[in-house]
From TrEMBL:
UniProt keywords, alphabetically: ATP-binding, Nucleotide-binding, Transport
UniProt-listed InterPro entries: AAA+_ATPase, ABC_transporter-like_ATP-bd, ABC_transporter-like_CS, MacB-like_ATP-bd, P-loop_NTPase
Transmembrane regions listed in the UniProt entry: none
Family: Belongs to the ABC transporter superfamily.
Record's GO cellular component terms: membrane protein complex
GO MF entry, a single one: transmembrane transporter activity
Entries under PANTHER family matching the protein: CELL DIVISION ATP-BINDING PROTEIN FTSE, LIPOPROTEIN-RELEASING SYSTEM ATP-BINDING PROTEIN LOLD
One Pfam family recorded for the sequence: ABC_tran
Protein's UniProt name: ABC transporter ATP-binding protein
Taxonomy, superkingdom: Bacteria
Domain annotation ABC transporter: ranges: 9-244
SUPFAM superfamilies, per database record: P-loop containing nucleoside triphosphate hydrolases
Amino acid sequence: MAEEKEPVIQVKNLYKVYSVGENRVFALNGVDFTIYKGEFCSIVGTSGSGKSTLLNMLAGLEKPTKGEIIIGKQHIEKMTENQLVKFRRERVGFIFQSFNLLGTMNARENVALPLTFRGMAKKERLKRADKMLNLVGLNKHRTHKPTQMSGGQQQRVGVARALVVEPEIIFADEPTGNLDSHTSADVMNLMRDIVEREKLTLVMVTHDTHLAGFADRIFHISDGKILKIEDNRKHREEVEDEQV
Ligand SMILES: Nc1ncnc2c1ncn2[C@@H]1O[C@H](COP(=O)(O)OP(=O)(O)OP(=O)(O)O)[C@@H](O)[C@H]1O
């Protein structure tokens, strides 16, 4: 059966040029690609290759110098700041390297936080937060504060917080950068399972080629250009078969 592909993110001829004194830095130097619904894509490259710049553009955190970014059917490069705030609040979730949890709040309060911006009643917010904490296997840690949890557990709270708004797209910036390799693999597998089950779209940037290998497709970026897009599904299935 032919697979039906629904584009979620379309990037066309994207440029970001910074001026530094006399010099111009082409942080993104003509980038084109499409990401489809339900995909987990990683963007991998060395330091300074343009990963964060690209993620910031996709998430509407920075304006491109030139080019188009179409999410769903909306051109985000044409949105006003207010429209971008609404877009980020309602349609995307973020997972950060540094977890960004609030130290004074426990796990469920941290997860429920993005819902307060939607004006949802407290009881409903906490109910949804508990459901997400269940999903990431932390139902016993609901009342733990960040300092009372391991790095991996804190990042699972971060994953639950990104998912609680039921976003179409999740952006992750080096999400396991502060974790050891075993815990990183656990968090990666968890993210991949949830993306698959909930039919979400996940875009992750990393400098780590091993972690990039958890994705369905790997976008290699260098000097602001996508050098290669690698379909990783077949390779991954083979690795998984070997592990059974
Ligand atoms: N605000 C800025 N002003 C000037 N140059 C910038 C700015 N932000 C990024 N750059 C430059 O753009 C290029 C791409 O930077 P970017 O932060 O996207 O790289 P990266 O791949 O995310 O690197 P890292 O893995 O180190 O975070 C680099 O050459 C960087 O110096």
